Fold this sequence. Notes:
Two copies of one chain form a homodimer. The first copy, chain A, contains nine helices and 14 strands. Chain A is α/β, with parallel strands linked by helices. Chain A has two domains: 230 residues, 3-Layer(aba) Sandwich (Aspartate Aminotransferase, domain 2), CATH 3.40.640; 103 residues, Aspartate Aminotransferase, domain 1 (Alpha-Beta Complex), CATH 3.90.1150. The interface between A and B is large, with 64 and 64 residues.
Amino acid sequence: MSVFNFSAGPAVLPAAVLERAQNELVKYGDSGVSVMEMSHRSAEFIDVAERAEASLRRLLNISDDYAVLFMSGGATMQFAMVPINLSAPGDTIAIVNTGQWSTKAVKEGQRFANVHVAASSESDGFCSVPAFDSWDVPADSAYLHYTPNETIGGVEFHFVPDVAGDIPLVADMSSTILSRPVDVNRFGVIYAGAQKNIGPAGITIGIVRKDLLERARDDAPSLFKYKAYADSGSMINTPPTFPWYMAGLVFEWLEERGGVAEMARINEAKAGRLYSAIDSSGGFYANPVAPDARSWMNVPFTIHDESLTDAFLAQSSAAGLVQLKGHRSVGGMRASIYNAMPDEGVDALIAFMSDFAARNG
Amino acid sequence: MSVFNFSAGPAVLPAAVLERAQNELVKYGDSGVSVMEMSHRSAEFIDVAERAEASLRRLLNISDDYAVLFMSGGATMQFAMVPINLSAPGDTIAIVNTGQWSTKAVKEGQRFANVHVAASSESDGFCSVPAFDSWDVPADSAYLHYTPNETIGGVEFHFVPDVAGDIPLVADMSSTILSRPVDVNRFGVIYAGAQKNIGPAGITIGIVRKDLLERARDDAPSLFKYKAYADSGSMINTPPTFPWYMAGLVFEWLEERGGVAEMARINEAKAGRLYSAIDSSGGFYANPVAPDARSWMNVPFTIHDESLTDAFLAQSSAAGLVQLKGHRSVGGMRASIYNAMPDEGVDALIAFMSDFAARNG
């Protein structure tokens, strides 16, 4: 039986990438050893590392004005690293709050600066993106932070904010990076934990405009300074080498598939079919998100009769559609359909949903 | 040709562990998905995580008085986390300096507290362990930190310091953990980056006495607080799941091999044979470390005629003895012979050294 994995993260990886990693797991190339056993300073691993960076730069068209960093600690570490690198104590930082992840960014940011919530969709249960013309971004903000895709709520920005003046725009792209083209030049910092659209958990990508590298607080831990990563090829100390290697394989796979423009076409179509199935279910299924803010990556949905949820989850799992349970804070179902989720997986889910509704309608 | 990998870290992994990981890389157990693709909160991964912790607790006989933490960032992150968790600004922290890694602990520690160097072997080029009765540990020290094995210098403590009063003892065991039995109850904190004796790079083990969990500074980043890891099963956010899984496989392998007492017997014998080969080479090879401080894990050595170093490295590598180059700061050779280095690897190196000396003597 085919298994399709809708986990929100760690998430499905491309089958071709997993098979390649399996083939070369014990002996990588001519090295005679596993990629996991190589010194990070060996010529073989430096090649792995540099090819991964070069591939990511091609995929997102990242110019030399930006450093590409390979870090650890996920978005949660970035919630502290961004204010430590881009603001001084007492500075104002502006954050748009569209759900649980941006709420975490607010809370952690408050430990290091004065957080001004520039806009929030809390009043509608985080089911929309606040209209851009309603945002209140103080002119002296050290930066403006937002979360282009909220993994838990399934809320996505389908525009990039046009920030006035020279306020750097910072984006937590953990669950949307590489799902579509993005103009990196509009951002000060982009960061993303790997475990959704990049690779296995344990590595975090940063794309940092180089003129921002000099702003870090002097008293920060050494591993908190973007500049230390930029100056050392992200090898201040031993980096997470295997997750880095896996990220490189995923980048290569994306390039072979036609890059992010092609992924955008596929992702929009996949998400479109799934939302259509929900919307055309005659109210059996529902997604609470405003249509112009629906995520291409994470599709939460509920059943009109909540008591059917457990049956849906048990039967879908038995049919090979796994990890569909909604986040523990939300309930219901959530289908995460990242780049690596094939069309067949989405179509199998839609077919199951239709059948389940027919049997229980 | 067999390849034996003497890398100091990331380092050789047990062949049986790599083969098992390869076999189950694409589909783990009955899950239908890779262990890399599982939600860290899924029942399957929680089982992987808990079994790894239980195995480590058995191996080191860790009591319930200690929390076992799975973190990231390596020893370099711990150089900041330890003072942030165990001291207040202005406190004195005592550090024994026996080489490059403890020097880094001193430098990073100075960012967060007043470092008092309790003892140092700098004057003899970090080739010994300062006699314990010469150590000067201030009675008000927040803790005493030392590095039981210096990976670069090849200097190892063959005793555990008997600290007076209730000063917590903190040890960076990155390159010696699990190589021999240790009485965990004598320590406040033990930490270790995984990439030497535990698993692949990207995960860091902490063993923290529970009464020390409450001391962290309020203004620390959330991911810097030991207590946050202890309270969440090390799942504050998505942990590095694949390195965690691999660490668990290595722990199981160690248990199957007879545990750390048996590893100590094997390691002492392996190191003993290699030091004998150096010492009995009639001065062709030399190791600079005081005999009572020689490491079982990292054996640096030089050739009396330095100009032969490049030939040694090229020929040994061609013979399948790879990653023998000494640290860039030291030169010469370094053979790292962690738990996963089989007897055959050490014996092949000794045979090569003998042959090389005969051809170039």
